[in-house]
Amino acid sequence: MNTGSNQPSLKWSTQLDVLPPESTPPLRGDKIILPPSALEQLLLAATVTVTNAAQVQTATFDPYNPYSFAAERQAREQLAESQQQLPHPLTFRLVNPENGRIVFAGIREFSASDNAVGLSSFLRQTLGFSGEKTSRNIHSSTGEEVNGSGDHEIVEVLERLTVHAQELPKGTYVKLRPLEAGYDAEDWKALLEQYLRDNYTTLTNGEVLNIPAGKETFRFLVDGLKPNEQAITLVDTDLEVDIEPLNEEQARETLKRLVEKSKKAPGTSEGSSPGGILEVGTNEIGQVRPGECVDYAIGRWDRKHDMEFELMTFDPELDADLFITPHGPKHRSKPRETEHVFGDFSNRTSKRIKICHTNSELDNAEALWVSVRGYEYQDAQSQAPIQYSLRISSTTDSATSAVDDTPMTDGEAVGPDEERCSNCHQAVPKRTMFLHQNFCLRNNILCPHCQSVFQKSSPEWKNHWHCPHDPSFGNNASSHTKHDRLMHTPASCPSCDYQAANTPDLAHHRTTTCPGKLILCQFCHLQVPQQGPDDQPADSPEVILSGLTPHELSDGARTTECHICAKIIRLRDMTTHLKHHDLQRLSRQKPRICRNVNCGRTIDGIGKGGEIRVQSSRNDLGVCDVCFGPLYVSMYDPDGKALKRRVERKYLTQFLTGCGQDWCRNEFCKNGRRNLGLLKEGQTVTSKEALGMIKPILENLKDMNAPVHFCTDEASQKRRTLAEMMAAEGSESGSVVGNGKGKGEGKEGRGSGYDFEWCVAALEVEGGDLDRARGWLRDYARMRGEGGI
Predict the structure, then answer these.
(1) Confidence of residue 743 (pLDDT cuts 50, 70, 90)
(2) What HEC string does 618-676 produce?
(3) What is the pLDDT of residue 737?
(4) Residues in domain DUF7590 (predicted)?
(5) Domain 12-165 is in which class?
(6) What is the pTM of this model?
(7) CATH class as words, domain 173-261
């Protein structure tokens, strides 16, 4: 079963003892642990296989010719040395010799004890290993197993497993059949991708997958694979997945459950409101069934102002709670009672949450998820939806608002003819105070804790309660039960062993340090728990100092190639590595370009990585080597007079004879002037006119900022024109002259583009390719206005 590569298949097999579960390190999925000796044998097998496969490597091999024989031997040694490596991924075929069961697996590490193999619980169950030692009759002298009585002894031995190295093709298709009816996950793709990526290297036809999904566990039978019907590998491949019912009865049962669920689905008259997108400043009216949640999302809000959320139920006897969680890379779960960042599940009739705009939880938040949960009382007779009103407002007041349901009667003003009753604290006229007190003391009672007044015979007073541990109070038994359950009942985290003192403590744990908290990994871009079984704890020093979650710290250890320097860098170090490249980019000096206004080359030459190849004086004209080539002579000329004469002859030749190229645009050339329309058909430039135009150039020849005008090749001239256009794109004035000293530079032009020199260098490095030149500029050039070092 070859993967289709040119390398021969690896052949290796052995028989090992299966370690008992208590002696096996924790393994997941189809992972196994082999002894270090197995790795040595595998490398040796890979070398032997390659050597045997390499029959003839040289085209002119003659065993009787010592030269060709030596060349053939050297070629075989180089081939064996270069290909002495194990296939990736390294997969194995496991066989239980007792029952003949077969399954494929991937390697975790080579750290098992000698002649032993460690299996995950999945492989142990699939292969039918019990994990118990078996007793055998062993002959005392020969050590072989015997039957019946005789000279033997009873020895306990481990179960045996046959391991074969076998390469598998990359999978393209798998068919899964659910073993139970009613499976309905929100996102099958994300669930399967995360579970298979973290736990499995291979898939074997006929094996059963147990996929956890929250409180549920989905069991699937693998019932079809492609391109190999027996097994496939899942590494570095795109897999098409089909989920089909096991039989018609299961399909009908699943459909029946989905229909029943749809009758109370969100948006129906009996169901909760569907939720959706909310805007700040709106008042949302909706309903929620007890025990269910209605989820809203706020995608846009003013991040410079505080936000206030207020939830009120139309029926004061019914209760609904309000939860909010900022949605971002660090928070992926919807707000719930046991998992939220902001929440109000008090016994007040109005639930309010005020979030300050400076709250650190809002950093990097893409949206705000708001959840309204209908509280489900255990003794409730009606399960009708709870009507509610949700108001969202923005305020500039940074003080935290509070709601107090107690009557604020002490602050009311008392008139000159009024007196305050000592029992109900109401303002009563003095002339009727005696009658009022007789009635009030006989029928009303004042709570000494919250100063609320109740009728002595009312059910509110009979059920009125105050918590001895905190200021909470209420007027019915159900609110007391809710308060005790949420605030004074220990709770266990479903994702770890954490024991919380109450529900708010559990919610804080599950949104901060809980290993099962869902995040969006910045490296694998998958929604995963922030800490896997093998990751470091969330409070470890390395995790705290790095600012990454344990999963990101582990996943970021994978390497990739830097697109700028081609070095192999760890993913978690890539940001710092790119900052070094950015510092190098800002510290680079602008390259020197050719003084010739028709040339698109640099003087010193620019490397692929932005480095200047030669930093020295090239010639006395300040032009590139290509432009100076026709003017070069090997003679001593300290005053530059001979060079000046050669330049003069160069100009005269251009004016009088021309370069003979129909694409020339040099105004100091006969052909260029004709192409530019400066000369009419049949018109020529006389020697006198030519000398008059040449004289100012020769007088300023030693001024390196003064341009020269030599004819160049077509590619260089086109690059110069493209460079001028690129430099003008980011300039405020949009003007760049031919020598790169236009208004687009300096204090006048502070655009976001690149200087003319960098544009010339980019096009020179990329051979005139405009798109690649733009990419080169982004990686290696400094923009206008960026501070250098």
Answers:
(1) very low
(2) CCCCCCCHHHHHHHCCCCCCCCCHHHHHHHHHHHHHHHHCCCCCCCCCCCCCHHHHHHH
(3) 41
(4) 271-396
(5) mainly beta
(6) 0.60
(7) alpha beta
